[in-house]
Amino acid sequence: MRLYLSCFRSGIGVSPSAEQAHYLIHVMRLKNNDNIRVFNEQMGEFDAVIRITCSNVSIVPSICVREPEPVSQETWLAFCPIKPHLTHFIIEKSTELGVTHFQPIFSEYTQFRSLNVAKLRKIAIEATEQCGRLDVPMLFEGQTFAKFTDSIPDLQSVTKTSVLPMHWLAAIERCGTNASPLVAQDGPAGIIIGPEGGFSEREKSILNEKARVVTLGKNILRSETAAICAISRLRQGKVCVQNVDSCCTMRHSVEIRDKQGVYVKDN
Question: Which of 57, 58, 66, 253 has a CB 3.0–4.6 Å from the CB of 21, allowing a cystine?
Answer without folding.
Answer: 57
